[in-house]
Structures are given as structure tokens and as C-alpha cells.
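Q: My collaborator sent me two sequences in one message, no labels, and asked for predicted structures for both. Can we handle them in order? The first one she listed is below.
A: Yes, handling them in the order given. First sequence, followed by its C-alpha cells:
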Amino acid sequence: MSAPVFFVTGTDTDAGKTFVSALLTMRWRAQYWKPIQTGIEDDCGDTATVKKMCETHGYSSEYAAPKFELMKPLCPLEAMEYEPHIDVKLSDFEVPDLYNPERPLIVEGAGGVCVPITKKLETTVDLMKFFINSTKRTFKIVLVARSGLGTLNHTLMTIEHLKLVGLQNFVLGCVLSGKKNEGNSRILRRFGVKILAEIDHCETKNDVQRALAQIPNLEALF
């Protein structure tokens, strides 16, 4: 049986999506792919970041190169304005051949669910739907949200949007990133949000190991 595909998306910029993607890659013994990368003019990119973090903590995996890499640190639609020869289309994407279907795949999206990624104004949600329709593997969405002030509005709006576009049954749950806030996590649960883990800031290897321990294993989720 093929292992699931987990699409990691965030509630806003710097919510901790790449860090959480690295944790999921390690915890679930998964492989990693970032389909669209922006901002490479002044950054090594998320694939290199995830790979370095995994290797630092003794985990070796497979990492496919992004299908598209754009220079400016902007949403893909705006970044393409600086590189008009690049034209992202949903039909350009497919799970890379190097992946073993018996191992989970972490797919890190570009920004949040409403970020425009094509010149046709298709968004991350449209990319999710494309993957759902083009893969026979189980597809689940992992939402990464800030733990602190503002997260209630951002998280509930994101989940409501996923419901409106018919993706509510694909949402696995939410990972809260940052200093733990019992009030926010309690209220989100009251709204029916499934909290997969609450990941505090990590500065040491021991911190990362504690964070990994917070993430449930796959057998507990399926």
C-alpha cells in the first residue's frame, strides 16, 4: 500500500512551515519536496534548509529539487513578473519519480492556501486539488499556525476556507509553532480544530528531540 502524501501549508508568513516540514520528515521517516521555491536571490531555499536540519539530527532522506525556482522573495505570481519567461502551470507538476511510494512524502507549499501561484490566478488550494486528482495515494493537509496572538483568526479563517472549497475531509490537523499558549490551543479545540502537536522554539539538539516526541506517529493517525 502506498504511503500518504502530506501537504504542509501555513496560516501566514513565518508561521514555521519549513521547520515543521523538517520535523515531519524526520518523525515520519518521510521524503521531502518543495514544488515552488521563491526568494533564491538571497536564500539557500527550503529544500537545503530541511536537508541540513535532517542531516544534523542523523536522518538521511531523499529530496527532490523544486519544479520552479524564482529569484524574488514574493508570492509566485508576483515573482514571475520579474522573470516573465517562467510560466507556472498546474499541469507541470507530478510527484518526482525518485520517490518510493512505500514512504510518506512531505510536500511543502508556497505560503498559505490562498497564495496565487499561476498567471491564471490559481492558488495553493488549486494545487492541492490537482494533487488529489492526479495521485492514487492518500492525500492529507497539515496546517502550520503560530501559537500566539492572532492565530485564532488566521487559523479559523484558513480552515473555513478549506471547508468552503470542499477540502475539509483532507485536513489531518494543525501544528502550533512557537511558545506554547494553552488558551489559544484550548479555544481552537473548542472550534473542532485537531491539534496534532504544539512545537516550542528549538535552539538545541535536545529541543529538537523534544519537539519530535510531540508529533504523533503515523500509526496513531490512521
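Q: And the one she listed second?
A: Here it is, processed independently of the first:
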Amino acid sequence: MPPTNRTTRLVAVGSPLALPCGVILPNRLAKAAMSEQLAQVDGSPSQTLTRLYSAWGRGGAGLLITGNVMIDRRAYVEPRNVTLEDDRHLEAVGNWARAGSRAGAVMVMQINHPGRVAVGPLHRRPVGPSPLRPQAVGFNLRKPRELSTTDIAELRRRYARTADLAVSAGFAGVQVHAAHGYLLSQFLSPIANQRSDRYGGTPANRRRLLLEVVAEVRKAIGPGALLSVKLNSADFQRNGLQESESRDVALALEQAGVDLLEISGGNYEAPAMTGVVADSTREREAYFLRYAQELRARSAMPLMLTGGIRTLDFMNDVLADGAVDVIGLGRPFAVRPDIAAELLAGATEPQTSPGAPRIPLPGADPINSYLQIAWHAANFRRIAAGEKHVGGPGALRTLAAAGAAVTARALTQF
């Protein structure tokens, strides 16, 4: 990448971005989605969740993307996910949106359905494109029910309904989660999707549901709201979604009018999104940069790159190079809620923007991945309480606390 001077770098990361829908991001730094698990028992946003986003909203990021918001209370990624399927909690959802956007950040709600990797409700059978168990530990205990075409039509309506409610409550838009092995990602995967109807069998059929969901969501929220999609660059599994097919999906999403495509990768079986699955771009700091560069050569769609990015110089180099338009940071925001403001002021890693600490469990990469997520989730309550620089517990305490928390939430919500 061509060298850039300090002035150019500061302008690059701090420059605004006008998206095709007309929404303007005040800068190029985004808090990527992290699952907060801070909803009330009834699925509404809690005051703790609202305070958390108030802290992040003051932290300088131009874009805040929420963690999983479920489109159906019959299927949760984790206990205590926010659920938005009707207007009963719209006031609390509006308070959440205002808390994050009060200081100027653009608030976007990530909407999702877990499909065959649903944690709960425990008494319900999960659903998926095909009746095939995932191979991830803990998710392979229940065989999913294959979705009928009637079920699929209902799912499309649910995505659109949740998106409409989010925008009505004050969110600038939504992000449709089609990555990390959740339902729409499952339809894209030749491993999870072995259907023989119009939703399976060929690459065009496997991406059909995602494109239909995007079309219905756009119709629901209108042309002036932000419509984002989170997409795997690859599943990082043999016979899973590969980069060549993923690029074709991305180009189809561009034609469908998506305003911002976030690039990620992996799933519960191969968690590349947390850095525990090696990729050729990992040594260059960003996990999925090569894919972004190859897609940029064929697409003008605004791109957001998330995964492994930590240093200001690197962020500004890839922005100045034009490979991507937005830099997504996830776990660093669970350590320093104002990290975006520090980066915009010129702070560089490692002095004031350290990468997220890793919990050392050699030889246990998937477990390491789960524990890293739990470690950062444990910090969210501290940030909501006003802490600025957060340090969490070690691996054993994280494991014990995460197990107790998930059990308590499951018993109270399901």
C-alpha cells in the first residue's frame, strides 16, 4: 500500500462517509456487533443495555451496530437477547436508539435468527434449511427441523417486521446478519443447506432467501434508511461457503441496493471471526482483507472490514488505499468504550488502543473462542456502570461466571 503522511491518515479515519441511502457516517470507525445478552426477561432492552450504548455513543464511533436482536422469541442465539417482533416494547427500543445516537453516532440494529444453532428455548426444536445437526460442541444435541416454504415465507415477513419496528423506534437502519453460521448463513452453506427445492442445490438457489429478505426489508424501511448485511467471506470449512461464491453473493447484494456490506467469516464450527482459525491475511493484521481487496476490484459498494484490526496506521492505510470504507472494531470496545475517540485524536496501538486480551487455552481453539466472547460480555456491565478502562477475569473465573450466567438466564427466560 502506498505510504501516507500523518495529515492524510487523520483525515482518512476521521472523514465522513455518505452512504447510498443518504445516511452520513460522521467518521469511518464502527463498533461492530457483539452479543450483549442484556435484555429483560420479556425480551425488551434493559436499562443496563441502554446505559452501555450511551457510553459507546459518547466514545466517538461514527457507527454503532447492536448485537443480535431476535426476529422471533421462539429462537434465541443466547438467553437474554433482545427480541423485537411487535410494538409492545417500542418505547424501550426507542430509548435504546436515542442513547446511542445522542452524541452523533449512527445507530443500526442487527437483526437475526439463529436457525439450527439456537440455544433456546430449550424445549423447542431448532429449525434450519435441512435437518442436519451442526458439528459444533453443544449445538449438535438437537436435530433441526427442515423449514417448509410456508415457514420461509413467515421468516421473510418477520425480518421485514423487525426492521420496520427498529426504524420506527428511531434506529437509522438495520443490519441483516447473514454470517457466522446463523440461519441466512446456513442457507448459503452447501454443508448446512442440502435442499433440492428453489432454496437449495445451486449457488443461485442458496442465496435466494437472503436476497428475498433484503428486498422485503428494503420495502419495509424505505429508501432513506440504512440497510446493511453482514456476510461471511468464507465459512473456513471444507465444502462450506467459499470465497468465490461469497463474492457472487456480495455482487448480488450490491445489485439489490445494500448500503453497507460488512465482511467477516467463520461460524461456531470454525470461528475465524475471533482469530482462532488461521487465514492468509491474519499476518497482515486484518483477518479478511484479501477478500475485501478482491471484492473491491469488482464492486463500488461501501465495505466495512471487521476482524483483527487494531492499529491506527493500518486503518488509515487500508482506507487511503480504497480497499474498504469503514473499519469495524468489536472486542476493543469491550475494553475501552472510548477507543474511537482516542484513535480519532491520533492515538496508536499499543499505548492507548490495545488489542483485546486473549485467554490462553493452547490446543482448545473453539473453547478459547467461546471464552473470549464471555470475557468481553462480562465487561459490558462494567462499562454501563461508568468504567473507562475495563479489565476482566482470567480463564477459569470467566468459564465459571459464563456458565452460571447462561444457566440463570436460561432458567428465567425459557
